[in-house]
Inverse folding.
């Protein structure tokens, strides 16, 4: 197979990852908010979301790759992710319970610090592995 064709296939496959993550996320939101199902019925989607993220992180760490975004854009992405997660949780909580209760505060107190700590730890680990990989291939 020609290298150009292989390259096009790789682009198509690379585009599938965000699409699968988007569909799994939408499925969770629909099942929890609109259909008012229990979270147990979303286990397949949750497994897909968690393991795809873990897989991408491990592959980047092993290969010494770091996220291509730098500085303020990375922090902007972090803030957008946290805000979007909170908004989705507020909406799901309101639709299921008719009001926003104490569980939302518990979610914020547990989710936001945990997410930020894991995010910064992963970012530092990837930066370290990336630097180590660069040093391996630079001339001394």
């Amino acid at each position: 197979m020609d290298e150009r064709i292989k390259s096009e296939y790789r682009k198509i496959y690379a585009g599938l990852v965000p699409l699968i993550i988007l569909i799994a996320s939408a499925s969770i939101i629909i099942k929890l908010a609109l259909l008012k199902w229990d979270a147990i019925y979303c286990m397949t989607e949750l497994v897909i979301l968690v393991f795809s993220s873990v897989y991408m992180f491990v592959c980047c760490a092993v290969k010494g790759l770091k996220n291509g975004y730098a500085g303020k854009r990375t922090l902007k992405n972090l803030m957008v992710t946290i805000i979007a997660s909170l908004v989705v949780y507020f909406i799901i909580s309101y639709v299921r319970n008719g009001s926003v209760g104490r569980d939302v505060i518990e979610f914020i107190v547990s989710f936001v610090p945990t997410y930020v700590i894991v995010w910064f730890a992963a970012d530092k680990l990837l930066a370290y592995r990336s630097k180590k990989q660069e040093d391996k291939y630079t001339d001394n």
In short: The CA atoms of residues 51 and 136 lie 29 Å apart.
